[in-house]
From TrEMBL:
Pfam families: PC4 (PF02229). This is Transcriptional coactivator p15 (PC4) C-terminal domain-containing protein. GO terms for molecular function: DNA binding. Gene3D superfamilies: 2.30.31.70. Residues 20-67 form the Transcriptional coactivator p15 (PC4) C-terminal domain. GO terms for biological process: regulation of DNA-templated transcription.
Amino acid sequence: MKEIQYEIVKEIAVLSASESGYTKEINFISWNGKEPKYDIRSFSPNRGKCGKGITLTADEAAALLEALQNELNSGD
């Protein structure tokens, strides 16, 4: 099985942290040398392991931001 490589190009924010030290983060990451994308996933304390996550292009991230702003501002 091919080893997956990643480079965190830009750290954006830690969204939460668990008692075990894992953090849920949003970062700008290049996976296997490809064009960087926005990425939301959990990481172990030393970033040696990462959980399942989601990667988003800039357009997808903008659409998510708009959808969340609409949802949070709707007051429902």
